[in-house]
Amino acid sequence: MSQYWSDILNSLTPYKAGEQPQNRTYIKLNTNENPYPPCKKSIEKIKDLASDELRLYPDPEANQLKKAIADYYNVPKDAVFVGNSSDEVLALSFLSFFQQKEPILFPDLTYSFYPVYCSLYNIKFECIPLTENFDIEIKDFARTNGGIIFPNPNAPTGKYLETSKIETLLQQNQNSAVIIDEAYVDFGGESCIFLTAKYPNLLITQTFSKSRSLAGLRVGFAVGNPELIDGLNRVKNSFNSYPLDRLAIGGAVEAILDREYFDRCCNLIIKTREWTKEALESLGFYIVPSQANFLFVKHHHYSGKFIYEQLKNRGILVRYFDKDRIREFVRVSIGTIEDMKTFIDAIEIIINLPE
Amino acid sequence: MSQYWSDILNSLTPYKAGEQPQNRTYIKLNTNENPYPPCKKSIEKIKDLASDELRLYPDPEANQLKKAIADYYNVPKDAVFVGNSSDEVLALSFLSFFQQKEPILFPDLTYSFYPVYCSLYNIKFECIPLTENFDIEIKDFARTNGGIIFPNPNAPTGKYLETSKIETLLQQNQNSAVIIDEAYVDFGGESCIFLTAKYPNLLITQTFSKSRSLAGLRVGFAVGNPELIDGLNRVKNSFNSYPLDRLAIGGAVEAILDREYFDRCCNLIIKTREWTKEALESLGFYIVPSQANFLFVKHHHYSGKFIYEQLKNRGILVRYFDKDRIREFVRVSIGTIEDMKTFIDAIEIIINLPE
Questions:
Q1: Is A6 in a helix, a strand, or coil?
Q2: Which residues is A128 bridged to in the sheet?
Q3: Is A2 inside any structural domain?
Q4: Total of domains in chain B
Q5: Residues A221 and A322 in one domain
Q6: Are B265 and B254 contained in the same domain?
Q7: What is the pLDDT of residues A307-354, one digit of tens each?
Q8: pLDDT above 90 covers what percent of chain A?
C-alpha cells in the first residue's frame, strides 16, 4: 500500500503464473510449454530480422501476421486481432466487452487469470460450478449475464467440450459477448473459429505459446466478427500502439505457415499424452480425460501437494493448485517421451516410498 | 459501435501514431526513430537467443534487464520496472497512480497519448497551458491535483526543463504522484532519476525506442521508489505476466551495457540537430530550442500542413499536428547528416516554389 496508489491497486490480487525458477534446471512440466522447438523457419526469420532495421517501429497493425492467420483459418483479415500474448488479448477483451451491468459468467474451476482481470477492470462475475466430473454444463450458463468466458479445452482440467455444445450456448446467449479461450485446442479439439461468421458475439482467443512452441516470443490472437475486432483495436490503440515487435511478427508468421511441422509436433504430444495417461493409470492415478497438452491427475492415496513436492525434490516441476475441489490433483504438462519416462520413473519411486 | 462493446469503448478516441507507410520507402523524419542501428552486441545477442529455447516462457520479472538498468543508473533493482514499450509502462502507470478523486495535470501541448489513457481509465484531467514560448511554468502546476505528468524534454516542442525546476515542482507537490516522461532526455538533457531516492512520489519513465535505437523491439522502463514500483508490478501481474519476450530482454540488456556506442550515437544526433537548426534558420524558420532528437519548426510564410504535404510528395515524412496553437509547425526528427541534407535541399525547393 502507498498513498500514491489508485484505489484499484489495494484490492488487486495479481495472477500467479507457474514457477519459472532461474537457479537450476528442472524438467519443466508445470507451465504447458511445448517440448519441441519452434519451426526452423521461425528461428531463421528472427535471425534475419535481427538487423539494423530494429531501429524502426514495427507495423502497428502487424498486417503480415493478421493476413497469415486469416488465410490459415479462412476468415477475413479484419476478423483477426493480434497482441503481445493471449493474456494481453484476454485482458483487452475483458475491458472491451465485459464491463457490463450484469455479471459475467465463467466456471468455478478455470484459468485463474479471469477473476484477476475482473478485479483490474471492476467487472462483476459469477462462477458456475463444473459438474462433479469437471464438465461444463451449458444449461447452467442460461442466466442473465454480461458475458461468458471459458477455455476449451478447459484449464486446468483439460476437458474438451464439443463444438455443437458451444453452438447451443451461442443460440441460448445472443445478447452478450461469448469468449472461447482456445489456448489448448490444437491438441485434439476442434476450433470454434468457423462459428464466428455466424455468431456476431463470439470471440475466439488463441496463443502461440503452446501448440506453436513460441512461449518465449509472446504472441496471441483473437478471431471474431469485425465489429468485435474493431472494438479491440480501439482499446489497443488507447493502450499501446505497437504491442508486437518486429521479431515477434516475423517469427509468428513463419510458425503459421509451416503446417506440416505444426501437425507433427501436435501429434507427437497427443501420442505422448496417451502413453503417459496409461502409465499413470497403471500406477493408481485417476486422470481427467484431456484434449490438451497436459493431464490433470490425482492419486488414490497421495495428495497433490505431496506429489508436487516430491517431484520437485527430484528435479521435476508440475503444477499444484491450493484450491478447493482440486487439492488432490496435480497438472502435468506433456513433455518429450524421454521427459515423461523420467517423470513416470519418479512417480513410481514416490508412490512406493516407505511411510 | 456494437451492442457487445463496454461503455468505455464508445467514448474512446484512440491515439494516432505517426504514419508508418508500408507501400513505399520514405526518409522517415516523422516518428523520432534513431537513424543509427542498434549496437552490434544487441543484434548478436538476439541472434543467439533465436534458438530452440524460444519454446520456453521468458523470465516474467526480466531480472537481467532490471539489474542492467539499476546498475547503469545506480539505483536498487527494486526501483526498476520494465514493460513492452514506454507506452505500456505509461498506460500501467496511469492506472496505478492517476485514478484519483482530483484531476491530473499535464500541459496543453504535450504527448497526445496522455488524454487517451485518461479516457481509457476514466481519469479526470486538466490541461495547463504552456507559456507563449512553449515553456512549462512550474508555478502553474501549484493546484490541487491527482497527479502530474509531462515529458522532459517536452513533446512535440523539444523544450527542456532544468532538473532544479523539477525539484521545485516536487517540493511544492508531495501528495500525488509526479511522472516525468524522459523519452528524449538522452539528447542533451539530464535525467531526474537521481531525484527518485529523495522523492517517494516521483516516477521516471524512459524508452529504448529513441536513444537506444530499438523502436522495433518494444522496451520501456520506469524508475521510482520501490513502493511505486511494487504498485506497477501488481498491475502488470494483473494484466500480462510476461510482457517482455526473451529476445527483447536480451537485446535491451546489451544496449544498456554498450555505453560507448550509445554516447557516440547521441552525440552525433545532437551535432546533426544543431546543423539542421542553423540551416533552417537561414531559410526563414523559427525553431523552438530543442534538447530532443527532433526540431519543432515553423516558417514565417508557409503553413505546417503545406510543408508537411510538400515534403511527403518528395519522399520525406515529417509530423504535422492539426491542433490549436501549433498548426503552423512541423516536427522534424533528426536523421543522419545525409538525410538532413536531403531534407534541407527539399525545403529550399519548397519555399521557393512559384505561387
A1: coil
A2: A107
A3: no
A4: 2
A5: no
A6: no
A7: 999 999 999 999 999 999 999 999 999 999 999 999 999 999 999 988
A8: 95
Same domain for B171 and B285, yes or no, is: no
Mean pLDDT of the A25-40 span = 96
CATH code where residue A336 lies: 3.90.1150.10
Q: Is the pLDDT of residue B107 over 80?
A: yes
Q: Are residues B229 and B250 in the same domain?
A: yes
d(CA B150, CA B130): 11
Q: Cβ contact (<8 Å) for A57 and B5?
A: no
Asked if B216 and A96 come within 8 Å (Cβ–Cβ), the reply is no
Question: Does A24 score more than 80 pLDDT?
Answer: no
Q: What's the half-sphere exposure (Cβ side, CA atoms, 13 Å) at A220?
A: 26
Residue of B nearest to A101 (CA): B6
The identity of residue A303, as a single letter, is S
Q: What is the DSSP track for B228-267?
A: HHHHHHHHHTTT-S--S-HHHHHHHHHHHH-HHHHHHHHH
Mean pLDDT score, A167-183: 98
E strand segments, A172-299: 178-181, 202-207, 220-224, 285-287, 294-299
Confidence of residue B21 (pLDDT cuts 50, 70, 90): confident
Range of the domain at B301: 7-37+260-350
Could you say which of B258, B289, B317 is where a domain stops? B258
Task: Label residue A147 by pLDDT band (50, 70, 90).
Answer: very high
For residue B55, the SS3 value is: helix
Which of B200, B232, B258 terminates a domain? The answer is B258
pLDDT tops 80 at residue A218:
yes
Residue type, A82: V
Of B4, B14, B37, the CB nearest to A237: B14
Shortest distance between the Cα of A49 and any Cα of chain B, in A, equals 9
Tell me the chain B residues in contact with residue A317 when contact means C-beta distances shorter than 8 Å: none
Q: How far apart are CA A337 and CA B2, in angstroms?
A: 48
Residues A110 and A167 both lie in one domain: yes
Amino acid sitting at position A243: P
Please report whether residue A21 resides in a domain: yes
Cα-atom radius of gyration of chain B, to the nearest Å?
A: 21
ipTM confidence: 0.96
Which of B15, B47, B50 is closest, CB to CB, to A241?
Answer: B15
Judge residue B283's burial from the number of C-beta atoms within 10 Å of its C-beta, 0-12 exposed, 13-18 middle, 19 or more buried.
middle
| Over residues A169-175, mean pLDDT | 97
Residue A355 lies in a domain: no
Instruction: Indicate yes or no: CB of A38 within 8 angstroms of CB of B60.
Output: no
